[in-house]
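Hi X.,

You mentioned you wanted examples for the new student's onboarding notes, showing what a folding record looks like when two proteins sit in one file. Here is a clean example. The first protein comes first, with its sequence line followed by its structure tokens.
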Amino acid sequence: SASGNNVLVLLDNTAMQQSYSLFFNQLKDRGYKLNFFSAEDPSLTLTEYGEYLYDHLIIFAPTVEEFGGLVDVPSILDFIDEGHNVLLAGDSTVSDLSREIASECGIEFDDEGTYVLDHFHSGQSDVADHTTVSISTSEDTMLQEPVITGSKRQSDRKPVLFKGIAHTIKEGNGLNIAILRGYDTTYSSNPYEPIKATSTSIMGSNTILVSALQARNNARVVVSGSIQMFSDRYFTSSSDNEYLTAEISKWCFKERGILRAHNLTHHRIGETEPPQMYRVRDEITYSVVIEEFDGKQWVPFQSQNVQLEFTMLDPYVRTFLKPSTRGLYTATFTVPDVYGVYSFKVNYHQIGYSTLSLKTIQSVRPFRHDEYERFIKTANPYYTSCISMLVGVFVLFVFLLFTK
């Protein structure tokens, strides 16, 4: 991972390791060091001497009402605020503790005791109550972003099994992403109670099963309404659970979708070093190398929609940076005919990728008095008027001098 390999795993009880061993073995095979604790362990702590002990946090404790030791909701939110990552899984009995963590991340779980139901796409093992839903990973149900959900071809994918609680994303939250959602026939309700007009508040494609948050500091949080989605039972069935959970965890723990920039330069065309000041109408070349972490190493990042802005309060120039195969992005433009203090800005926001924000301040001066052209073409009317006035004065002088 680009941000470290030390993981704290909080479980309802440590015996749960056996039921989710395949998922945990995935993480170990990718080089993670897993530290298993009961969520109520009195020795729990995320920090020691002001330093975080872990890079990532997995919470597989949907029924725990209170964490042990020094771990609580504010400490987990501080963990996220410091740029660390959290994977949270619940079920139909999700506790108020897990609800509060999810709510702080822009996610609202449905009422306790409700399940995601679909009578047209139920898992074969639960024909009676249809609480196990089989979701085919189509464009309607799964986020089509390979950096998050993997690059496996659609024709090779199998359905994903899900048994748990639905959730929604708070309105107006632009940082959350729905990764897996239900069909038009999917709804959330308590299967053991009669359905009433008010008992089904989440239905259709608004039934979100798995979602993610990428915070402004690039911390990542993934919330799944089904802890069983990660279980050995579902991994060994004819499903795509093992593949999808592996891809989601790679994104969550920053094995992919992480960008960095270096070798940022700008200069006049024909030069190699940036000047102390640019002059209006100068031709400028701006370049920067952008790389992406692929899970093992940094490789050149390829995209056609990285933009450069040359701004002074408002953008005066906005242009696309042209990429090369080496990850070098370049743009050439003319400095506006307005002097002042400008900023070179690159703000790259793309679903699944970390935010890339670059800013360089540079002054732009006007022409010096000896840098203007000797004769300006646009001033020809003024030149003509001056010459015609002189000619007129001369003619008038001759007329007055030689006439009686």
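Then the second protein repeats the pattern, sequence line and then tokens:
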Amino acid sequence: GGGGGSALSKQTSDASQLYAQPRTMPTPGGGEAGGMTSSPPPAPGSGEDAESSATRLSQLDSMLGHLQSDLSRQGITSTSKGTCSACQKDIVGQVITALGRTWHPHHFICVCCKAELATQNFFEREGKAYCEKDYHEKFAPKCGYCDGPILERCMTALGKTWHPEHFICAHCGNPFGPSESFHEKDGQPYCRTDYYSLFAPKCGACDRPIADSFVSALKKKWHPECFNCMECGEAFKGGNFFEHDLMPYCEKHYYNRQGAVCSQCKKPVTGRCITAMGQKYHPEHFVCAFCMKQLSMGTFKEHGERPYCMKCYGKLFG
């Protein structure tokens, strides 16, 4: 899913297996089921629309009817080759056998565009005949990227079908290899690099995406190897750390940041503190620079930025 970042899989198949195969029209006299038994008339022109085609067919029907009447008046009888499934009239002359029925050649047409199917392959669906173009448009699986019909190889992923060349990363546009996994976000596929770059949490130290385990602290997420003192880079002993401005520090550098480090021993001042000469001291470390006796606030003299007791100051500098 979008948050988990788990890799998903895809399947590739032949699109023709998903819906149908074309029915090939045999040559005249074939007599096979689904085929035609005579050479049909030429197909209508490419610019012919449904209305003009219907008018032409009506005129042709009328001509055939007059021809049959004339032959009858002259004593010439014709043998019926069956009843046309479209017009329910006897078929005299050329006949098409398809879909388990017989047809006048000009009546065997695509149920959608009305184009004659005499000179082309056709597809059958629920007893109806379709030209190749209309069948693909109506029943072929559609590509999840371009929405066009898929006629050959077909990839199935994310509950959709895709042209293999159109199953690509939604960000960088690179196609996925045959065995390459992908990640999904909001119904779109992403390569691993772009998925983590766009959607994974960023490390609070290095700002790079976090793909695996992480440490959650200070309202941020961190790579385990990046969660160290921001000053010295040392790992935290026992997992304990100090926070300053939402960043982790070891004890020494935390107090250094706070300005609470003894000027004498350089260690943090965590209890009582003496502030003198712009520095902080542990009380026991605030001593005379000459006799090393502990000093009290207000009872020392300074010389060369060093503290002295009154007695030593008088002896040395008085």
